[in-house]
Each structure stands twice: as C-alpha cells, then as structure tokens.
Amino acid sequence: MAGYVAEFGKNGRPVEADGRLDAAAFHRNHQPIWAVLKDYLAGQSGDVLEAGSGTGQHVVYFAGQAPDITWWPSDLHAAHLRSIEAWRADAGLANIQPPQPIDLSDPAWSPAPSAAKGPDKLLAIFCANVIHIAPWRVAEGLFAGAARHLRTGGKLFLYGPFKRGGKHTALSNAVFDTSLRERDAEWGVRDIVDLEKLAESVGLKLAGSFDMPANNMILVFARD
Ligand SMILES: C[S@@+](CC[C@H](N)C(=O)[O-])C[C@H]1O[C@@H](n2cnc3c(N)ncnc32)[C@H](O)[C@@H]1O
Q1: How many Å is the Cα radius of gyration of the chain?
Q2: Is residue 54 lining ligand 1, measured as CB closer than 6 Å?
Q3: CA distance 224 to 204
Q4: Ordered structural domains, the chain, with CATH
Q5: Is 140 in the pocket of ligand 1 (CB under 6 A)?
Q6: What is the H or E stretch that residue 134 is in?
Q7: What is the model's pTM?
Q8: What is the tens place of the pLDDT at every residue in 41-100?
C-alpha cells in the first residue's frame, strides 16, 4: 500500500468532528474542473467513479451538478474514506454511493467488489492529483482498471500537473516535481507522452487536453 496520506486540514479548514477533512486546493479548483467536465457529463446518466477521492469534496460538488449520474467515490486510506462518507452524509444527496476502498496499485482493483450491486460499465472515471504522488504502478493500475470498467466511449479524466515531451510546462511544476522526488523517489510529475503510451497499451487514447489554472491540466482519455 502506498504510504501517502495528504495532510488535509493543515491549509484548509480544520478537521470536523465527524471526520470531514478540507483540502484548500478544492476551493480553488472545483469550479474550473467542473467547467471542463460538464461538457462531457452534464445531462448524462450512468455511473462515474472517482479514484483517490481524498476528502470527498469534489464528488459531492459534482454530484450536485449532475444529479442523473450515480457517483462512486473511492480511496485507499481509512481517514479519507471516513471523510468522504462524512461529506456524503452532510450533503444528503441520493446520487452518491458510499466510498469504495480501492487501491489503484492493485492491478485487479474493482469498484464495489463486495457489494451486492456495483456500478454498471462506467460512463467515466475522474482522478485528481493522484498519479504524481504515487509510484508509477498506480498510474498503470488506474489505466488497466479504466480499460476494464469503462463503457465503450467512456472517459478517464486526469487532473493535475503534467510534463510534455520531457519538459515541464512551468517553473513551479519543476520545483514541485523535485520536491516530490525528494520525498519519494518513485513519485513525480508524469509526462503526457508516457501516459499516452500507457493508454494505448490498454486500448485507450488521448482525446483532449485542457490547460487549467495554476499550471495544471485535465487530460481526457477515451476507451475505443
Ligand atoms: C493529493 S490527494 C488528492 C485527493 C483529491 N483527489 C483531491 O484532488 O483533493 C491524493 C489522494 O490519492 C490517494 N491515493 C494515494 N495512493 C493511492 C492508491 N494506490 N490508490 C488509491 N488512492 C490512492 C490518497 O489517499 C489521497 O487521498
């Protein structure tokens, strides 16, 4: 299991008694992210999985914007699963499922492995700020699972900082990359070229990319 636990609550609001954590970045990025996702998801129905949900704030916001979609948050850390469940209870939205314990480094991960009924073939998977703060095998597991669980035409949305052809898109990303690698040699800002190769190896292809605030991007991979 990856040893990473985000220090949510340090820069955002304090931890609530019910376990709700707050990510400061959520307040800056959730609206720009939805501005991209909505062109793919608004008005659609089906199941969308969030991988590495962290606090659970994104899934609650997206579920409020797209009520005909059933949202499936997930993470591997107990404190994050607790936070997601607390945000879910606080929101009281019928279209958010209980959080799934999913470790993306398990190449055979599956949503709702023990539930009576899991999601149908997924309309989309959303994954924000995970694959650079984890070993490369987490990206491999994410794409392998996307190939297994997305419906034909389904999308994998990746949000975060990325390199292009070995080059950082901003100095701040280069500095961030160095700090990640100092914390763990297996972490680091991923290259779009490597992600395209990984996608192609499992039958996905890069179908879109969007520049986002603070030198982040959204990459959209589609399952043929
Ligand atoms: C920086 S946080 C991002 C959380 C959230 N997506 C966001 O943008 O606020 C990274 C998240 O990835 C999760 N994570 C790390 N390794 C993972 C793995 N192998 N499988 C699933 N989740 C993982 C962590 O528990 C954490 O919640």
Answers
A1: 16
A2: yes
A3: 6
A4: 24-223 (3.40.50.150)
A5: no
A6: none
A7: 0.95
A8: 998 999 999 999 999 999 999 999 999 999 999 999 999 999 999 999 999 999 999 999
